[in-house]
Amino acid sequence: MTGPSVKIFVSAFWILLVFSTSIQSQTVEIRDDFKQFYDVYNVEGLFILYDQKDNKYIEYNQSQLKQEFTPASTFKICNSLIGLETGVIKDENYIIKWDSVKRRIPAWNQDQDLKSAFKNSTIWYYQELARRVGGKRMKYWLDKADYGNADTSGGIDKFWLTGGLRITPEQQIDFLIRLHDNKLPFSQRSIDIVKSIMIAKDTLGYVVRAKTGWGVQNELNVGWYVGYVEINDNVYYFANCVQTKDSDNKDFVKARIEIVYEIFDELKILNLESK
C-alpha cells in the first residue's frame, strides 16, 4: 500500500484502537445489596448509575435494565424540548391559563408557566402543550430524538401517560447523556432552558437536574426519578424505577427520590470531602 491507501489504513487503525480501548475500559459493578433500600419501602425496582469520569456503570436488578416502562412525567423533559423547539412554548416564562377545572393537586389549580409546570409536574399544562404541537410534529421529534419506542398511540395528550410510549432505564440514561452533552437534535437555546428548569438542587458543591414520574402500566404502579449530578469535574447519571401492585402503598411516592439519595450516601457521591 502506498500514498492515500496507507493514510486511510492508518486512520482506520487508530479509530478502531481508540474505540476498542474505550469499550475495554468501561466497567460494570453489580450491587445486589441495594435491594435493602427497596425493601424498606415495600417496592420492587431497579437502579442504574453511570459515572462519566470513570466510564463505569453501577447497577441493581439488571434484569429490568432493558425492560420497557411508561415514562409518565419523566417525558416532561422531552416534551419541554419539543414545545420550545416548535415555538409552541416561547420560553420558561410562557403561561398557559388554567381551565378552572379543580384537580387533586392544589398547585395545579392556577395559571402555570413552563418553570412551575415542570416543578409541580402539572399534567394539564403538558397535555395542552402536546395538543398544540400536534400529532405529526410530535411523532417527528420523538423519532428524531430517538426517545424510547417513539410510540404516540393512545392520544396526543395521553400517549406518555396511558398510551403506547415506553422507555427502558438504559434509554433514560442515554437520553440524559445526550442532553447534558448537547447532542440532542434541538437548539442550544431549547436545551439550555430545559437544563435550567430541571434543577432540583443547586449547592456550592453540586447541581442535581432531575424529574420524577408516576404512571400505571398493566395494573403496576411505576415510579421514576431520573437525572444527573454535576459535581467537581464529573457527572453521575441515574435512573431509579420503582414498582408496586399495591395502590395503597403510602411509601411509594417518596421511594422514588429517597432511594436515590440513600444510594448516593452509600456510594459517597455527594461526600465532597472525599472528592
Helices and strands in order:
Elements: H1 4-25, E1 27-30, H2 35-40, E2 44-51, E3 56-60, H3 76-85, E4 95-96, E5 112-113, H4 114-120, H5 123-133, H6 135-145, H7 169-180, H8 188-197, E6 199-202, E7 206-217, E8 220-231, E9 234-244, H9 252-267
Parallel strand pairs: 1-3
Antiparallel strand pairs: 2-3, 2-9, 4-5, 6-7, 7-8, 8-9
Helix pairs in contact: 3-5, 3-8
> How many individual β-strands?
9
Q: Give the C-alpha Rg.
A: 20 Å
Low-confidence stretches: 9-23
Give the full name of the CATH homologous superfamily: DD-peptidase/beta-lactamase superfamily
Secondary-structure arrangement, i.e. CATH architecture: 3-Layer(aba) Sandwich
Strand content: 15-25%
Shape: globular
- Any idea of the CATH class? Alpha Beta
Terminal CA distance: 50 Å
How many helical stretches? Answer: 9
Order of helices and strands: HEHEEHEEHHHHHEEEEH
| Overall number of domains | 1
Average pLDDT score? 92
User: What name does the CATH topology carry?
Assistant: Beta-lactamase
Lateral arrangement of strands in the main beta sheet: 1-3-2-9-8-7-6
Largest sheet: 7 strands, mixed
Helical content (DSSP H or I, runs of 4+): 25-40%
Structural class: alpha+beta
Descriptive overview:
This protein is an alpha+beta fold and 275 residues long. Helices cover 38% and strands 22% of the residues. The strands form two sheets. It has a seven-stranded mixed β-sheet, sandwiched between helices. It has helices at residues 4-25, 35-40, 76-85, 114-120, 123-133, 135-145, 169-180, 188-197, 252-267, and strands at residues 27-30, 44-51, 56-60, 95-96, 112-113, 199-202, 206-217, 220-231, 234-244. The radius of gyration is 20 Å and the shape is globular.
